[in-house]
Amino acid sequence: MCGIVGYIGSKEKRGFLINGLKELEYRGYDSAGIAVLKDNEISSFKATGKLTNLDAKTADFSSEGFGLGIGHTRWATHGKPTEINAHPHWGEFSYVIHNGIIENYKEIKDTLVSDGVTFLSQTDTEVIVHLFEKFIKIGENAFSAFEKTIASLHGAYAILLISKKEPDVIFFAKNAVPLIVGRSAENEIFFSSSDAPLIGWAKEVMYLEDGQYGWAKCKELSLFKSLKTQALNFKALSQDKILAQKDGFRFFMEKEIYEQSIVVGETLMGRIKDNSIVLDELKDICFEDIDAIKICACGTSYHAALSASYMFERLSKIRCSVEIASEFRYKQPLLDTKTLFIVISQSGETADTLEALKMAKNANMKTLAICNVDNSSIVRTADFTLLTRAGIEKGVASTKAFATQVVTLWLLALFIGDKKQNISQELMRLEIDALLHTPLVVKVNEIVHEKIRRLSKRYLHGHGFFFIGRDIFFPLALEGALKLKEISYLHAEGYPAGEMKHGPIALADSELFTIALMPKTLLYDKMKSNVEELSARDSTILAISPEPFDIADDFIKTNLHTHPMSEFFEMMVITQLLALEISIRLGNDVDMPRNLAKSVTVE
Ligand code: M6R
What we know:
3 domains; 24% strand; Rossmann fold; binds 5-amino-5-deoxy-1-O-phosphono-D-mannitol; 8-stranded antiparallel sheet; 7-stranded antiparallel sheet; Glutamine Phosphoribosylpyrophosphate, subunit 1, domain 1; alpha/beta; 27 strands
């Protein structure tokens, strides 16, 4: 996820901008840039890779005296992580930086191109600056030009724009992406994506709300929403940096669980239009030539793959098999060029997954990466890529990466089903409704979180956990168990509920904890019988379901949904929070559990 900083004042601007961006490094980025407007001249610098590259490029640049500065770290979503695609983007007299995704950028770009505008980058962001300048050229002043530009954009954005037409002003806008305005005692103005860069500089801050936009001068700040003036709501800034990076959460994993609603929104952004799925990245794949899918991945990404296998067979009506990458590599697999080979990886660097991908390429298969990190080894190797857009994930235990992988795969299953004409309009409409509902479903309910926090104290001992579920809730059970064991060091297994009586039920006694995923939309009665069998053997049961269940020792009530995937995602959040709270009570390092690494680049 990108980062933004901005400054209005008389101090040296490069220092604040580069240091501010360094404070945002934890969000992840692949290129960076700054622009400074002083004495009606704009100086701009960009560099790919680490901030040290931008630091070196700007080493001889300094800007004492009154002026404006904007700075940006970019996490590629539209276009490769190149210097041209790095922000700021410019027109003839203005520069812009932007976090988020402009959903309707193509329509805007087409109109601007037909007006004769030349674009330099592949980004969605560049339309903002050209549209702003177009409004000025047809006679608007800079303020109404900015207002009209913002009104034309659909999507998620935090935007800072500077222009020689108003050399004392930073224009800003915020929708669905964080943007903070800070103020110092000396009337300097600051902008940032989070508190951390402002600590030690700003005295008070205002957290902008969605739909707010405005313009800032040194001693003047105008804020609007839907053309109406808004009151300024500044409050004192806490000076704790680590807490600021974690946005006040106890651990990055907790923050990432809470971020899922936003990042799932980003995964979907621009990929659903009218009643269809739009995946421009795959426009060159001829699906008529493909009659099966094979997916390879490790760990959590493997669990996302297993969930997807149900969707590919059900929605796309295409055969799908899933393999753990480290097993696939040595089994001498029979590979067929009519099979689409998909790898899933958060990091894009997992050695086993990368090697499996190379095997598929050597066998002349079409390959597709579902990945969170653009330009990673896996993305560079695969023929095609769908980015999951989860932003950097710091917690070793994967949460938001899993959520965005499953959403991306769901989009893909619908896309392929449509290409193969296996999905009716009506089914597509129902699926799209459910997809669009997902950001809301994964939003953490504070009351449920508090209940899980209290419940967790009863689950700190025992000789093991069984997470059980059926159908797509089986991979979710596997994922729930993996989360718990990674950060609590307690023994946990995921099982298909119907399989318990074929062996594992021998372990059942009161010290065996069963976490039962009991959705109402799929096989509820079958699940109920399986849980009853375990209860009869005295296993301690924690049931997660919309329907109260008498024999459960503990019960977490979920919402009633009409689509199984909505139940899936709500239960996903609950299992993540359960693992988190148990681990915290056990005093473990949630973000860096023992023996584990975030990126597994060895066999
Ligand atoms: O980066 P990848 O998705 O390829 O990583 C695969 C696994 O190493 C990873 O999912 C691991 O299982 C996580 N620690 C799960 O929380």
